[in-house]
Amino acid sequence: MSTSLSDVPAQIARQDVATGVLGPYLVGCVLNLLLGGVYLGLFSSARADLRQQPLKAKAVSWAVFALMVCCIVMAAEELVDTGVSQKRSAEELFAGPPQSNVLPLLGGVTGASCQAFLMWRAAALMPSRPLRLAFYAATSTLVLLALAGATLFSAMGFILTAGGESPIPYFTAEALWLWPSAFADILISAALAQTLHRRIAGFNPHTDGVLWRLIVVALQTAALTSVVSIAGAAVSTALEKSDDVHASAAGFAFWLPLPALHAISLFTTLSSRRHVQAQLSGSNSSGHHHNAHNNTLPLSVISGSGGVPGTKHTAGGARSSRAPHPLVVTVQREQAVSYDDGLELDVRKGPYGLDGSASSFGVGEKGRSSDEVV
């Protein structure tokens, strides 16, 4: 055998330790890649629709896209590095390479960007200024706490990689990131759902159905990230002081997919605008088609079978029958359904108008009818 293929002495961890430490981490990296690929595919297919979004939505979408590209590149690098690295002692497996500690920071910034935009969007729909300010204060606090927790978690990783002692337990920093992030997602989606629910006025089943659709989208958006964040935070809290290396790294499988989940949630929220507008357009088309066949309704005052026919007198006194004049009722109805999600604000009046009220939102329907009797 060639000397270049000879083995060298090395310290390696037991198989059960390597499985416990690397298993959740590799699962999280793979999920990050898969979900990141789903997001990139969705973003690419809807890139033309992005031009129709307001400037702020475009800026946030492209910023999240850039962050997701960084997350995907880092996750791919970690899979390759973990596969080829020969630093296999228990401590080296747990600490990982220094660049791996960038992933929590990227995840925190991605989540904070999505949450800040969704917070602004939900607040724009609130009619009460005090309620809107309270919502801003509570949600901003949670978002900033989550971002601080992600930064602290990343910093603790760099300290451990350098061989130092972290001032707080490593997984405590992880829990400080995931708990506020989960509560922020729940608060934003609950506020949006409640605001939309209050606008259901029972005008007609179609308009109410559109609002219910938006509520479902809001709750589904929260479910993607909140469930994963709560599960990861619960695992991190339960194991933050555990010395069992077989289970202490289980939280890695939960926070690594979070950036992609937040990005997909943002895309789902923005794309709901397009789906609702398509639904409204389809409703208008079908409504006009229906009205085209029912605008003129000829109604005879006298029944053709059992009524008394109309008569007239001739010069000779004879009676002759004549056809009855039908009563024609013409009904004209104009229907206009509009959808405004509060993203397009009047820059001349500011985000809340001259009087400080929230910008308009709603799925409205206006009708005009006139009857003509002939």
From TrEMBL:
The chain crosses the membrane at residues 25-43, 55-76, 102-121, 133-156, 176-193, 214-239, 245-267. It comes from the Eukaryota. Keywords: Membrane, Transmembrane, Transmembrane helix. InterPro entries: DUF6534. Residues 181-275 form the DUF6534 domain. Pfam families: DUF6534 (PF20152). This is Proteophosphoglycan ppg4. It comes from Rhodotorula diobovata.
